[in-house]
Amino acid sequence: MPMPQVPFDDRGLAYGDGVFETVLLRDGVPVLWDYHLARLEQGCRRLNIPLPTSQQLAQVWQSPPAAALEVLKLILTRGSGGRGYALPDHPEPRLIFRRTPFVTNGQRWQHGVCVRLCHLRLGHQPLLAGIKHLNRLENVLARQEWQESHIAEGLLADQSGEMVEATSMNLFWSTEGRLLTPRVNRCGVAGTLRAALLANGVIEEEGLTVSELPQVERLWVGNSVQGVWPVCELLDTQGGLIATWPVLAGPDPLQREAHRLLGYPSVFLASESK
């Protein structure tokens, strides 16, 4: 399906004035759809953008699937108009979307991944924290920090040295058997898989500093499309190895619960070191 043309004066293009969702479709049905709708509604309230109707939102996915697994990218902008940053008197939001077939990365589920710390520190803006707004330049800059194919993700801390997230995934860890995730009340994205795990009592929110990160029992990154990747190697901002975690010989506790929510298999991780 071709992407519709966006007018030159669209506020999402000009200012990042909008929100988006990236949704896993299984046999044409959105996974964790209620959590995506809740975040979309919150983003629209924060930015004061009229929310599309339920019928309009349903039309973006209620068509025959092209593959068993697809990714739906949904973008909602405030539309066109207004003078400079001033809002249009009568905004007409623009909803565009695209569906593409998706293939999971079972190797990363099973054998784990290498991640690195990013130089970039996230700025604090509580009014935008948690929502998936269209201005993601911090993430774009952070992703430029490495090109090595064996590095799966970059981890981001905020300006005070608290861990927040990965560039396109949420961050999880375990301490004394507890499954934890950083708070995202000052910056970062509140992922829908993260929200579902919190709602089901699987994880708790807690603070974690950059210096504490290498000492955690286990580390994971995950989102509602890719599932959960165990972290086996952590690199510093220069690419030097600062921590390793052995792959598990049995079921991964976080992956088991997360993949149940997504309809993915919970794999047994290889017992040998990476």
TrEMBL record:
UniProt keyword terms in alphabetical order: Folate biosynthesis, Lyase, Pyridoxal phosphate
A GO molecular-function annotation: 4-amino-4-deoxychorismate lyase activity
InterPro entries in the record: Aminodeoxychorismate_lyase_IV, Aminotrans_IV, Aminotransferase-like, BCAT-like_C, BCAT-like_N, Class-IV_PLP-Dep_Aminotrnsfr
Gene3D superfamilies registered for this protein in UniProt: 3.30.470.10, D-amino Acid Aminotransferase, subunit A, domain 2
Family matches, as Pfam families: Aminotran_4
Keyword Lyase: yes
Keyword tRNA processing (UniProt): no
Enzyme Commission code(s) on record: 4.1.3.38
Catalytic activity: 4-amino-4-deoxychorismate = 4-aminobenzoate + pyruvate + H(+)
Cofactor section: pyridoxal 5'-phosphate
Pathway the protein acts in: Cofactor biosynthesis; tetrahydrofolate biosynthesis; 4-aminobenzoate from chorismate: step 2/2
Family the UniProt entry places it in: Belongs to the class-IV pyridoxal-phosphate-dependent aminotransferase family.
Oligomeric and partner information: Homodimer.
Protein's recorded name: Aminodeoxychorismate lyase
